[in-house]
Design brief:
By secondary structure, this protein is α/β, with parallel strands linked by helices. The chain contains 11 helices and 9 strands. It folds into 2 domains: 6-141, 3-Layer(aba) Sandwich (Oxidized Rhodanese, domain 1); 144-265, Rhodanese-like domain (Oxidized Rhodanese, domain 1, 3-Layer(aba) Sandwich), CATH 3.40.250. The N and C termini lie far apart (37 Å).
Length: 275
């Protein structure tokens, strides 16, 4: 059993062979530049997820002008092949999902991320690349891969599957996203949501498990291809990892990422919560 879309996942060797390819732009995404400054893939452009992909309230920034500016200053055109990697397991897939919402055609993820690249002792650089700005045309947002609160509410206690990919402590209401929690944030999970920690899909070296292993993992939880699936976490980042696995590695046709996630849901007065 092979991945449904194997071309979306590239290995470290593929990236190493395309570092000089002008049609390829490598992006490292993280919440700060500490790891990037200590050594990144040569030529990689850095995206701070908290200031480019997200807003100060930890909501995704769907402003088209901000997206256009981000890609233009990153040297990306509509025809560029974008390779995403990160130091955190969810970072690359958060950026991947974000780019897909805006309709960028060719986005791929480097399997294993920084951990695998460094473990293989591949070349790194501390030089920040000089990028020539490009012209980028923003397309209409793809709403088919987003889940909104009303869609999540409609999925509760139905044949649709809600997947909570946070830690079990978050799911059970023992841990809040914020420390200390804000007064408006409630603890727990969305009723009828199945818990499956997102890192369950990964091997120790941060690469994805085989298609057979992944299918068995999700099938054992009743997360099957014939059902509508909505993933969520705290801010929509970790859940984008599970969304990526289901949609691109296993080929599920009806899977959405609830990007508002617990950050939004826990603050909605009419949103039901279980602990």
């Amino acid at each position: 059993m092979n991945y449904a879309h194997p071309e979306i996942l590239v290995d470290t060797q593929w990236v190493a062979e395309h570092l000089s390819d002008r049609q390829v732009r490598v992006i490292e995404t993280d919440i700060d530049m500490t790891a990037y400054n200590s050594g990144h893939i040569p030529g990689a452009v850095f995206w701070n997820a908290l200031t480019t992909i997200m807003q100060p309230d930890y909501r995704f920034n769907f402003d088209s002008s901000a997206f256009l500016e981000l890609l233009a200053r990153s040297g990306i055109t509509n025809d560029t092949t974008i390779i995403i990697y990160s130091n955190h397991n969810a970072g690359a897939h958060c950026a991947f999902w974000f780019l897909k919402v805006f309709g960028h055609n060719d986005v791929r993820v480097m399997n294993g991320g920084s951990k695998k690249w460094l473990a293989e002792k591949r070349p790194v650089s501390t030089e920040i690349p000089t990028i020539t700005p490009t012209i980028y045309t923003v397309k209409n947002l793809d709403t088919t891969i987003r889940a909104l609160p009303e869609q999540v509410k409609a999925a509760i206690n139905t044949d649709s599957i809600l997947v909570d990919v946070r830690t079990v402590q978050e799911y059970c209401g023992e841990l809040f996203m914020m420390k200390p929690p804000e007064k408006t944030e409630r603890a727990g999970h969305i009723p009828s949501a199945i818990h499956l920690f997102y890192e369950s899909a990964l091997n120790e070296d941060n690469t994805f498990k085989s298609a057979e292993e992944l299918y068995a993992l999700y099938n054992s939880k009743g997360i099957t291809p014939n059902k509508e699936v909505i993933t969520y976490c705290a801010v929509g980042a970790r859940s984008s990892n599970t969304w990526f696995v289901l949609k691109y590695l296993l080929g599920y046709e009806n899977v959405r990422n609830y990007d508002g996630s617990w950050n939004e849901w826990s603050r909605l007065a009419d949103a039901p919560v279980e602990t």
